[in-house]
Amino acid sequence: MARSKAPAGPATGPLLRIGIVGAGHFGRFHALKVAASARSVLAGVHDPDQARAASVGREAGGAPALGLDDLLASCDAVIVAAPAEAHFALAEAALRAGRHVLIEKPIASTLDQADRLIALAGQAGRVLQVGHLLRYSAEHKAITQRITRPLYIEATRIAPFKPRGTDVSVILDLMIHDLDLVLAIVDSPIEDVDALGAAVSSAHEDIANARVRFANGCVATITASRISLKTERRMRLFSEEGYLSADFVARELTMIGRDRGLPLPGTGGFRREAVSWQEHDTLAAEHEAFAASCLDGVPVIVDGSAGRRALAAALAVGDGIAEARRRMERSGLIGMQA
């Protein structure tokens, strides 16, 4: 099915023809990664703005700008990088056409939509992968190698304001990254969510905090903001295995425990391990995993079910914020919304 091209690395057999749906900020990055891959070829780019699609296609090696039907007819797989509200309709069209799908987070707008996409992929025997990039990161590997049974997790993800991404709340824009990472670490269903948030610079929440309690007793506190003065991405984890602190921006991790690192004098046998890692191209790693699943049948790391679980957690945070706001309005702490 796939046509040949000069490979970016060693030849690996058939190539996966990939179409990009959405030529915005992330769509452009996806197109460039596909064009640079040794296992894929860029079949075309689709966007309602045809001039933008053509520009991205030229930058990525001359791929044509195509209508959606023509794109689906020209590829084996699609990457959906359109605005979040369009994810379901575009992924549904691709799956019904028998194409593999890599969809940017969130998987859909509702759990019903997520369930329908999962069912369609299963019926068609096609890959459905969701773009939760942290699963392919060096920090995810470093954390999960050291903490497997967390008791408490604290995650912070804050950044200065940017207009891009404000079509959804900060929960679906930023917090969902840490929700997915926490869900991947904690092997237990969510039991309760208490949350607060506020819309400051957009129509949706720009800052949010959630306390998530799991059925096994683990608790996670997650903060996300897109109206901060600086960028900060940190995570702390407590467990019987030790204490771990990770700075994702500095790419540094410290672990205090009994099994790793250098002895800490006067602590009764505790050790301190300091770890750093090099910049890691998580998007390229995500693409490699997608190609391996489509071409080789390798199990999908972040499948539709994982995407649905992250969406369910994000929606629960949104519901918690709405309930907290109603309580504050009733008490007079804040004014009633018009």
Quick description:
The protein is built from 9 helices and 14 strands. By secondary structure, it is α/β, with parallel strands linked by helices. It folds into 2 domains: 16-134, Rossmann fold (3-Layer(aba) Sandwich); 135-284 and 314-322, 2-Layer Sandwich (Dihydrodipicolinate Reductase, domain 2).
Report on this model:
This protein is of the alpha/beta class and 338 residues long. It folds into two domains: 16-134, NAD(P)-binding Rossmann-like Domain (Rossmann fold, 3-Layer(aba) Sandwich); 135-284 and 314-322, 2-Layer Sandwich (Dihydrodipicolinate Reductase, domain 2). It contains nine helices and 14 strands. It has helices at residues 25-36, 50-59, 68-74, 87-96, 111-124, 138-144, 170-185, 282-296, 304-331, and strands at residues 16-21, 40-46, 77-80, 100-104, 128-131, 150-158, 190-198, 207-214, 219-225, 232-239, 242-247, 252-257, 262-263, 271-276. The strands form two sheets. It has a nine-stranded mixed sheet with strand order 7-8-9-6-10-11-12-14-13. Strands 2-1-3-4-5 form a five-stranded parallel sheet, sandwiched between helices. The protein is globular, with a radius of gyration of 21 Å. The model is unreliable at 1-11 (pLDDT under 50).
